[in-house]
Amino acid sequence: MSSLRPLAFVAQNRFVDMVARVKQSAHIEEIDVPELQQMLDAHPAASSADVHVVDVRESAEHAQGTIPGAICLPRGIVDRDIERYIPADTTDKVVLVCAGGVRSIMAAESLKRMGFANVLSLRGGMRGWQMQGMPIEKQQK
């Protein structure tokens, strides 16, 4: 059992390294909670003409609450379904949100490869959003 602990540590380090490489190589820009709140204050709907918030967490996580007005598309289907909501050739900002800011970076890389030019990741994800006392809404089923 003790031999598994070092392997888990190595795997975790490789994952963290991979996310850092993706963020750097794909030029994924992260924004913090106050920056996103400022964008949303300027554009009251989270999926307005200039800013689209996309929550890439799983459905069970969405049920706990999300950023008001966010489009909920789990990471596993965001690539497939995003253009049902936002065209790839848009110049609008697409802000991706997950629980802590990792899945959103990976999803941002995919969307950039699909042609989305202005993709951002929320640093700290929903945990950061909630820790700063920002509003959440429960999604209607």
Brief description of this entry?
The chain has 141 residues and is α/β, with parallel strands linked by helices. The protein has helices spanning 4-25, 33-42, 59-62, 75-81, 103-114, 125-131, and strands spanning 29-31, 51-55, 71-72, 93-97, 119-122. It has a single domain (4-131), classed as Rhodanese-like domain (Oxidized Rhodanese, domain 1).
Provide a descriptive summary of the structure in words:
By secondary structure, this protein is α/β, with parallel strands linked by helices. It has one domain (4-131): Rhodanese-like domain (Oxidized Rhodanese, domain 1), CATH 3.40.250. The chain has helices at residues 4-25, 33-42, 59-62, 75-81, 103-114, 125-131; strands at residues 29-31, 51-55, 71-72, 93-97, 119-122. Strand 4, helix 5 (103-114) and strand 5 form a beta-alpha-beta unit. The termini are far apart. The mean pLDDT is 86.
Q: Which class best fits the helix and strand makeup?
A: alpha/beta
Instruction: Extract low-pLDDT stretches.
Output: none
Quote the distance from N terminus to C terminus. Answer: 43 Å
Number of helices, counting only DSSP H or I runs of 4 residues or more: 6
CATH superfamily: Rhodanese-like domain
Q: What's the β-strand tally?
A: 5
What is the average of the pLDDT values? 86
Topology:
Layout: H1 4-25, E1 29-31, H2 33-42, E2 51-55, H3 59-62, E3 71-72, H4 75-81, E4 93-97, H5 103-114, E5 119-122, H6 125-131
Parallel strand pairs: 1-5, 2-3, 2-4, 4-5
Primary descriptors:
five-stranded parallel sheet, 141 residues, 44% helix, 13% strand, Oxidized Rhodanese, domain 1, alpha/beta
